[in-house]
Every structure is written in C-alpha cells, then in structure tokens.
Amino acid sequence: MHHNPIKRRPSRRIYVGNVPIGDGAPIAVQSMTNTETTDVAATVKQIQAIANAGADLVRVSVPTMDAAEAFKLIKQQSPIPLVADIHFDYRIALKVAEYGVDCLRINPGNIGNEERIRAVVDAARDRGIPIRIGVNGGSLEKEIQEKYGEPTPAALVESAMRHVDILDRLNFQDFKVSVKASDVFLAVESYRLLAKQIEQPLHLGITEAGGLRSGSVKSSIGLGMLLAEGIGDTLRISLAADPVEEVKVGFDILKSLRIRSRGINFIACPSCSRQEFDVIATVNALEQRLEDITTPMDVSIIGCVVNGPGEALISHVGLAGAKNKSGFYLNGERQKERLDNNNLVDRLEQHIRSEVERQQKRAAAEQIPVKQG
Fold this sequence. Notes:
The protein is built from 12 helices and 15 strands. By secondary structure, it is α/β, with parallel strands linked by helices. The chain has 2 domains: 12-255, TIM Barrel; 262-365, Sulfite Reductase Hemoprotein, domain 1 (2-Layer Sandwich), CATH 3.30.413.
C-alpha cells in the first residue's frame, strides 16, 4: 500500500539460466553454499533449502577438478540456476562450462593472463553462459596493490575496468560486475564510480560482512545506500551464518525499500506499558506460522490506540490494541469484528490467510500475477 520513489540505473539485460538480470528486471537475490562441493548430497540439500527460502540463484565454489566433477551432478539436481565460483585455475571454468553452468564468476586478481580469460570467454560464448567479473578488495592484482598502497575505490574500479576492457575487446557483452569490500564506504563508493562507467548489470555485496547480526546490519547499510540510489541488479548478503539467513536478509532489505516484496512485511511496535496485549510474542508467533506465504502483504501489529489506527489504515491487515478486544482492519477499513486479546494469533493467522487467498483469486480472475518482485 506504499510506493517507492527509486529510479533504477539503466543497464543491459543478461540472463543467468532463466533469471533476467538488469534492464529493470526484479533485483535477484542469491546466496552461496558453504558445504564441501565434493559432498554432492549435502550441497544439493543446501541448495534446495536456499531455493525454498526464495533465492533466485545460488553460487557454488568449485576449487578443484574433483569439485568440478561433483558440480556436474549438483547441476543436474538443482532447482535454480547455479553460478560457479572460480579462482586461480581457468581450466576449472572450462570444465563447468562443459557441464552446463548458468554463470561463471571469475576473480581478476587471480584468474590469470588475457590468454586464459580469452579461453574462458570463448567457452562462455559458445554455450551462452554469462560471466561475473568479481573484484574483491582483499584480492586485488599485485600491481594494483603496489600502485595504490591499499584498497581504494579507484583501485577496485581500475581492476574491474581492466577486465571489462578485455571482454569488450573480445566482443563479449553478457557479463555483470561486482566490486566488493568489507568496508561499507569503500564498497559503496566503488560501486558509485563503476556505475558511471559501464552499462552492464551490477552485483552488490559487502564481502565478509560478519556474523548474522553484525553482518546483516553492515550489509543493510551498504546495500541500502546503493539500492536507494537505484544502483544494483543482483545482491548477496555475505554472512558467517546459515545461507538461508542470507536470503531472508536480502529480501528484508529489498522489502524495506519497497523494491521487491516477498511475503509479509510486519509493521510492529517495540511495545511499552501502553500495550493491551503481548506484541512481541504475537509478532514472533505470526512470523513463524506465516513463513510459507510469498504473496506481498503489509500487516501492522500495534499494541495500543496511539499509532495503531493510523498504521492499520495503510496496511492490508491491521490490529490496534485495546482493552480485552482489539480493533481489526482489512485493507484500511475498520471492521465491526474485534479480536479477543487472548486468541489473537489464531484469529490473525486465519484473517491473513483469507486475505492472501482473496488476493490470489482476484489476480487469477483478472489474469494478472500476484507480484513477488
């Protein structure tokens, strides 16, 4: 029931598998497996969990030829497109290209000379595979490190542009670029500079952001700044945590900026002595019960009448706390029904699921999709 004023940066369109990237396509959310790639069963299981959380893409590290052989089996079982993460040995990129990888991520700092890049590009072109040039502040080329002394925005962008120029000379345009750093300001300024110089899609990330809490905060600040400026076509939240959490945080960032919504956006007060019911317990219970819902929806849960009615007016489902029974709203309209404060979770779940079903039926009748991005 809200809209965002963000004007996205124009960019070229590429496809990673069947997922469109750039040129106004929904910003794709990806994660990365942290299993041993040679453990095919464990890796496939984790990819399935990541896909179930809503990810559009999954990146898989392929550090050895043995891992490349395992990747062949993993690709056959993956429900979503796979990006192969390649470092040091360009021959691994050639092998996974043969096995049907959906995108190749190469690191300019360690993939080798132009001849090796040409071999990778030729393999990608022959099979219609896009490439991600993945620059990282922690692994810049030796000569760039010596030139700048330390990672700087100019250093990261120079590294990226060297390889953009190589791909241009090879007449290869199906690529996206990232310039990641663990420092928020370094990453943000690098992306800003790069966005002015190329028309390819940009993959966003704050690399090695940290644990679940600190990394989520750092990523939200850095990526939020860029996304609010219209910069970014795909993203990954890099956390020392379960990859499923990366997907959840990624969608939460997009949801908070009204860029792409998936599932319920809860508006809930932090609670105080004015609350007429246990707001925190109610919200926690609803979040767990309603994780399966993918239809975008705003649900406001406010514990008193100070802000409750106002938030409910701009929500699909709203609750304004009152003594014994709380005010209930649907699509901004106050309902005659009041909800018993002792049975809020069950009743709210019923109403929310009914509203989801109503939206889906309306969309089907009008032959329009209930958009998730």
